[in-house]
Amino acid sequence: MKIISLTKTWPAKLLAGLSILLAILIVGRQHGYLGVPQKNVPQSTGNPPAAAAVSPLPASAGNPSGVSKATAADHLRSALAALKGTTNPIETTKILADLRAYLDSLPTDLAGTVIRDFLADPALNASTHIDFAIGKNGFLDGHPSLRIALLDWLGQIDPHQALIVSQQILATSTDADEWAVSLRNYARTSTDSQSRDFLRTKTEDLIQNPAWRANPSIGFFQSFDVLVHTHSTESTGLLSDLVADTTPQGAAIAHAAFLTLDRLTFREPAIMMEQLAARQNLTQSRGEMVANMFARADLRDPGQQQLVRAYLLDPARTEAELDGFTGVYPNANFSISKNLLSENLTLNSTEIIARIEGARGIVDVWLADPAFAPVKSHLTTLQLRLTTLMRQSSSKQGGLNENQ
Q1: Cβ proximity of 72 and 112 under 8 Å
Q2: DSSP letter at 127?
Q3: What DSSP assignment string belongs to 159-222?
Q4: What span, in angstroms and rounded, lies between the C-alpha atoms of 386 and 299?
């Protein structure tokens, strides 16, 4: 993950507390607070929408390759035995590559059914000694275990079978990485409102699981992206509580929660700003972070303009918060990462310039309004910033430099 800025880099003291998630994961492993999650049965909330049953596939049905179901199942068990016989990641990578090539050679129905049947027994598993890693289109480049590899591949080979298996896993005792992949598989095939609620509640279950939070895996952190994908503004309370945790042991999860809140704010600014302003524990403990999220607002939008107005005029605002808003508006800092589901959204230069131009007129009106007298100095600073950004963009002939 990298952070790009199209307006102004964040203050050093803020960036120190907001290092990118990938860096947190790497450092976390070095210091021992990211490990293999303990097995635990998460508390289930809600039931998934009903899915059509998948009937067993006869050994020879629709199989022009002539490979029987029993033969294919034996191939999976041979791969399992091979993985259990080595701790060398180079060797396990080759075992997985050979297994994937074999599954790809089978008819889709046969491959999907054999994987589904294998995954029905949680005891059939082996470590690969490879870290969880996301690759192209949300599928994995790194598979920590055979089960996670098969779950990932099933989502590509037979999405319908993957949906069935995901429902089963999300209702049983597995681990955070398996849940993360299952949530992704489920989300890729189910887009109705009931499925959205199911994904949100299951993701919240994962995040709140005490054992998984005590020893968070990479998949644990990646699961936060499901809330972004589903635009789960209802999760603001949970995420705010996590961000408000200023203890050293809660730093990694707090950062993941902050990134999620920030990405939700970019997607649903009016809803999120209203909720963030109401979270007193968050504004008191992470006021500058909240200010930076309010700086995502588009002041040309009447609803967002009113929310920012109320935020700035709130007597509870501190100097640091006001500086946090005026120092980055319009906030065009974005985290760029490989995600399970969501796309990386940013603002282009044309949109940023339009926001700056719109904000200049609004700030002029506010400066003339006696109600803004308590924050006039901050608005003056903001107006100077906006004017400077416009002048710089003009000198660069229509583009704001990334490192500006």
Answers
A1: no
A2: B
A3: HHHHHHHHHHHTTSSB-HHHHHHHHHHHHHH--SHHHHHHHHHHHHHHHH-HHHHHS--HHHHH
A4: 13
Helix, strand, coil percentages in the chain from 3-state DSSP, rounded to 5: 65, 5, 35
User: What are the tens digits of pLDDT across the range 271-295?
Assistant: 999 999 999 889 999 999 999 999 9
DSSP secondary structure code for residue 230 in this structure = T
Q: How many residues does the chain have?
A: 404
Structure confidence by residue, pLDDT tens digits, 49-99: 544 444 344 444 445 558 899 999 999 999 999 999 999 999 999 999 999
Per-residue model confidence as pLDDT tens digits over 255-268: 999 999 999 999 99
Q: Give mean pLDDT, residues 207-233.
A: 97
Each domain of the chain, given as residue ranges in start order, spans: 38-222
The DSSP string of 43-92 is PP-S-PPP----PPPPTTTT-TT---HHHHHHHHHHHHHHHHT---HHHH
Q: Mean pLDDT, the chain, as a whole number? A: 86
To the question of pTM greater than 0.90 for the whole model, the response is no
118/120 Cα distance (integer angstroms) = 5
